[in-house]
């Protein structure tokens, strides 16, 4: 079955955006996944199709109305098991394991917010997973939704081809990637590490693992600590 994405947004024209130029765009053409956008504005109220209003209690900015969002969800979400994901800096920080979980399902509904956020009561009525793509604030959820889609689509069967790059890459084994080199073997004053030219596959694999460990230790002490913990558990 096709992996299906439905996006609720004030800016449907932002999709598929940069995904149209990448692996994900090709996969969209090949119908490995499908993307539907739903303009929140169409569910707006009154002559101006308003979707937001001022916050109770005062304060700056506007809040997207729960009744409008609910109407949009009711109209676009058939009875299926796809999760509803709300992109927000308040969400849980997206990890590769989450991406793998979403990619292994049937797809997702994405809610993209703007303004100060959405009326909290929407979370009482619907089961919604809040996801952040990092500890910084974007002006809207759309770029975050595109990021999450990109990460999921590349894991779908048939998208990356038969190579190993999905299995060996960063985060799925808990380590950052080892450094890569290609031709020419000598460029300017820089040469490729000798071992990579040795043809000794065992030694190359050991060197790469060592490099990946060193890079992780130096750049991402948090990942390194988690990696050590899991490898300890594996031996106990
Ligand atoms: N919307 C605004 N900032 C965001 C972030 N960091 N992650 C997900 N959605 C967002």
UniProtKB/TrEMBL annotation:
Homodimer. Pfam families: tRNA_m1G_MT (PF01746). Specifically methylates guanosine-37 in various tRNAs. GO terms for cellular component: cytosol. It comes from Commensalibacter papalotli. Keywords: Cytoplasm, Methyltransferase, S-adenosyl-L-methionine, Transferase, tRNA processing. It catalyses: guanosine(37) in tRNA + S-adenosyl-L-methionine = N(1)-methylguanosine(37) in tRNA + S-adenosyl-L-homocysteine + H(+). Residues 4-225 form the tRNA methyltransferase TRMD/TRM10-type domain. GO terms for biological process: tRNA N1-guanine methylation. One of its GO terms (molecular function) is tRNA (guanine(37)-N1)-methyltransferase activity. This is tRNA (guanine-N(1)-)-methyltransferase. The keyword Manganese does not apply.
């Amino acid at each position: 079955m096709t992996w299906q994405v439905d996006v609720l947004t004030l800016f449907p024209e932002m999709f598929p955006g940069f995904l149209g130029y990448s692996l994900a765009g090709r996969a969209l053409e090949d119908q490995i996944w499908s993307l539907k956008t739903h303009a929140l504005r169409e569910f707006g109220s009154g002559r101006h199709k308003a979707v937001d209003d001022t916050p109770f209690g005062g304060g700056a900015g506007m809040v997207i109305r729960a009744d409008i969002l609910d109407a949009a969800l009711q109209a676009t979400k058939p009875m299926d098991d796809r999760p509803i994901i709300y992109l927000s800096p308040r969400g849980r920080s997206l990890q590769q394991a989450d991406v793998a979980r979403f990619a292994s399902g049937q797809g997702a509904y994405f809610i993209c917010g703007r303004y100060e956020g959405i009326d909290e009561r929407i979370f009482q009525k619907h089961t919604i997973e809040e996801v952040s793509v990092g500890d910084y604030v974007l002006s809207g959820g759309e770029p975050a939704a595109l990021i999450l889609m990109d990460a999921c689509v590349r894991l779908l069967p048939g998208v990356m081809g038969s190579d190993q790059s999905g299995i060996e890459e960063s985060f799925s084994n808990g380590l950052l990637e080892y450094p890569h080199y290609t031709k020419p073997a000598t460029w300017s004053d820089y040469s490729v590490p000798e071992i990579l030219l040795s043809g000794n596959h065992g030694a190359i694999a050991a060197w790469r693992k060592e490099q990946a460990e060193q890079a992780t230790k130096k750049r991402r002490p948090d990942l390194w600590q988690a990696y050590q913990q899991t490898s300890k558990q594996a031996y106990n």
